[in-house]
Amino acid sequence: MATSTIERLIAELAKLPGVGPRSARRLALNLLLQREKRIPTLVAALSTALEQVKTCTSCGALDESDPCTICSDSTRDAALVCVVEDVADVWAMERSRAFRGRYHVLGGTLSAIDGRGPDNLRIPPLLSRVANGEVREIILALSATVAGQTTAHYVAERLADSQAHAGHAVTVTRLAHGLPMGGELDYMDDGTLSAALNARLAY
Amino acid sequence: MATSTIERLIAELAKLPGVGPRSARRLALNLLLQREKRIPTLVAALSTALEQVKTCTSCGALDESDPCTICSDSTRDAALVCVVEDVADVWAMERSRAFRGRYHVLGGTLSAIDGRGPDNLRIPPLLSRVANGEVREIILALSATVAGQTTAHYVAERLADSQAHAGHAVTVTRLAHGLPMGGELDYMDDGTLSAALNARLAY
Question: Using the beta-carbon criterion (under 8 Å), do A42 and B46 form an inter-chain contact?
Answer without folding.
Answer: yes
